[in-house]
Amino acid sequence: VEKMTDLVAVWEVALSDGVHKIEFEHGTTSGKRVVYVDGKEQIRKEWMFKLVGKETFTVGAAKTKAAINIDAVSGFAYEYTLDIDGKSLKKYMENRSKTTNTWILSLDGTVCRVVLEKDTMDVWCNGKKLETAGEFVEDGTETHFSVGAHDCYIKAVSSGKRKEGIIHTLIVDDREIPEAVE
């Protein structure tokens, strides 16, 4: 295995199917560009005469669009920025915190990362979209699913405040799980 001597940037991107690691190698003499997603090579270009530009690829199960922008700052210094779904990583993650809820818990000795996509009500656990069953209850809705032998549901209740909207709570084996901050 050759050593990644030209590694210039590493990003962690939290998507519904997991947290993905994006690594970028840029040889500023050869113009070499290599993009790795979760340790797997996605793009390799050995000789590029143009040292600035952009590399586009996809990340995760949903094939989310990603792009690394290479800009010259001054002389031989370069700046690398990552865009996800056409937005800067920071903007994307801010928006994502409004559209998803994430819980991290340990079940049967395994760390589980449960993600709710609020717009579709899809539920993901450790990279897999789960089968769910929705049900109306007195004060809101419950989205039922199971993880292993555990009965789980996400309860959606109106906060009664317009700004806060709906509050989602994960219940596993009758226990409330606190939301994770990614």
Question: What does this 3D model show about the protein?
Answer:
Its main location: cytoplasm. Belongs to the FAIM1 family. Plays a role as an inducible effector molecule that mediates Fas resistance produced by surface Ig engagement in B cells. Keywords: Apoptosis, Cytoplasm. With 182 residues, this protein is mainly beta. A hairpin with a 2-residue loop joins strand 6 and strand 7. 6% of the residues lie in helices and 61% in strands. The protein has two domains: 79 residues, Lipocalin; 81 residues, Lipocalin (Beta Barrel), CATH 2.40.128.180. The two termini are 32 Å apart. It is elongated. The chain has a five-stranded antiparallel β-sheet, with no helix packed on it. A four-stranded antiparallel β-sheet has the order 1-2-3-4, with no helix packed on it. The chain has a four-stranded antiparallel β-sheet with strand order 5-6-7-8.
Short description:
With 182 residues, this protein is mainly β. The chain has 1 helix and 17 strands. The model has no long low-confidence stretch (mean pLDDT 92).
Report the C-alpha radius of gyration, rounded. Answer: 20 Å
Could you tell me the strand content as a percent range?
A: over 45%
Q: Distance between the terminal alpha carbons, to the nearest Å?
A: 32 Å
Taken in chain order, the helices and strands follow as EEEEEEEEHEEEEEEEEE
Low-confidence stretches: none
Largest beta sheet, briefly? Answer: 5 strands, antiparallel
How many helices? The count is 1
Number of strands: 17
Which CATH-level-2 architecture of the largest domain?
Beta Barrel
GO biological process, one term: negative regulation of extrinsic apoptotic signaling pathway via death domain receptors
Keywords: Apoptosis, Cytoplasm
Organism: Nothocercus nigrocapillus
Protein name: Fas apoptotic inhibitory molecule 1
